[in-house]
Amino acid sequence: MLRTFGSLRMHCQQVLKQTNKQPLTTRTCRKQSTLGGNRSDPDAARKLRSKSTLYYITAGGVLIVGFSYAAVPLYSIFCQAYSYGGTTSQGHDTEKVEHMVKVNDRVLKIRFNADIGSSMRWNFKPQQYEIKVAPGETALAFYTAKNPTDKPVVGISTYNVIPFEAGAYFNKIQCFCFEEQMLNPHEEVDMPVFFYIDPEITQDPALEYCDTITLSYTFFEAKEGLKLNFPTYAKPHAASA
Amino acid sequence: MTSQIYNQKKFIPTAPEKGSFPLDHESLCKKHFLIYASCLRRNDNDNSKCRAEAKEYLGCRMENNLMEKTEWAKLGFPEKEQPTVKEQQQ
C-alpha cells in the first residue's frame, strides 16, 4: 500500500511539473489527450465504457453480498414485528381465551421446575410436581418462595419451556415473572401461575407425540445494575383495579 | 436479542397477558390455595376436576385487590358449558 501511495505521489508530481512548464491552453489540451492514455479516440471510449461497466458490476456484487448479510437481522426484526413464520406473537389475543374450546382427547402433563441463581438466598419450589391439562383450558399452578434470611431480598424471575416448540403454544395469562418481587425477612408466599395451552397445539406436526411440557422458573437476586435478558416488550403491569 | 439470530433454537420468553401477580404478603388467599392444592392431590393432579377451586382462588385474589377484576369468561371460566371439540365435530 505504501508502494502504490509512493508511486501515486510520484505520478502526481510528474503531472504537476508537466502542467507547470506549459501555458494554460496547451495544458488543457494535453490533459484531454492524456485521459485515455496514448491511444486513438474510439478505442479509448470503449476502454472507458468497459471500465465503468466493470465498476458497476463490482459495485452490484458488493451490494448483493452486503444485503444478504444485512437480511438476517432485518428478517428477525420483521418477524418480531409481524409474527410471521412461526415466531410467537407479541400481544396475546384476550378474545381467544373467551372463545377457545377445550380439546378433550389430548391431555398434556405439565411438569414444574424451580431454580434459583447461585447467589439467590430464597427457597423456591413448586407446589405440585405436575398437572394434567387439556389444551384450551386455563390452569392454575403454584410455586412457593421463602426468604430465610434476616434481610428483605428482592428477586426477579424468568422462565423457560421445554420442548422448545411447545413454548409457542404456552400462553401465560398472569404469573410472577419479569417483575421484581420483594420478600420480607422470614416471609413465605405462594406464587401462582395462570396459564393455558393453545388448542392449536393439536395441529402442530412437530408436537404430535409430545405429551409432557416442562415449565421451569429461575429466580435471580435483583441487585443494582443486574440486567436480565428481558424481551423488550415486557413492561411492568399494575395488577390492582 | 441479536444473539438469538444465529442460534435458531433459542427460546423467546413472552410477557404474560395480564402482567404479574402482586405478591400475597399477608397470605390472604392461603386458605383457598390450600383447598386447591388438596383438590389436586385428591384427583391425581387433574386440572379439569379442580376448576371450581381455581375459580375460588382467583375470586379471592380479585376481592383482596391482588388481581385485576376481569370477567370470568375472559379467564376461561365460561358461565355456561361450552361445547368441547368432540361434541362440535358430531
UniProtKB/TrEMBL annotation, chain A:
Its main location: mitochondrion. SUPFAM superfamilies: Ctag/Cox11. The chain crosses the membrane at residues 54-78. Gene3D superfamilies: Ctag/Cox11 (2.60.370.10). It is a single-pass membrane protein. Keywords: Membrane, Transmembrane, Transmembrane helix. Pfam families: CtaG_Cox11. InterPro entries: CtaG/Cox11_dom_sf, Cyt_c_oxidase_assmbl_CtaG. It is found in: Mitochondrion inner membrane. It comes from the Eukaryota. PANTHER family: CYTOCHROME C OXIDASE ASSEMBLY PROTEIN COX11, MITOCHONDRIAL-RELATED, CYTOCHROME C OXIDASE ASSEMBLY PROTEIN COX11-RELATED. Exerts its effect at some terminal stage of cytochrome c oxidase synthesis, probably by being involved in the insertion of the copper B into subunit I. HAMAP family: CtaG (MF_00155). This is Cytochrome c oxidase assembly protein COX11, mitochondrial. It comes from Drosophila arizonae. The gene is LOC108611333.
TrEMBL record, chain B:
InterPro entries: CHCH, COX19, Cys_alpha_HP_mot_SF. It comes from the Eukaryota. SUPFAM superfamilies: Cysteine alpha-hairpin motif. Transmembrane segments: none annotated. Keywords: Cytoplasm, Disulfide bond. Pfam families: CHCH. Its main location: cytoplasm. Signal peptide: none annotated. Residues 29-63 form the CHCH domain. It is found in: Cytoplasm. Coiled coil: none annotated. Belongs to the COX19 family. PANTHER family: CYTOCHROME C OXIDASE ASSEMBLY PROTEIN COX19. This is Cytochrome c oxidase assembly protein COX19. It comes from Drosophila arizonae (Fruit fly). The lineage of its organism: Eukaryota, Metazoa, Ecdysozoa, Arthropoda, Hexapoda. The gene is LOC108616829.
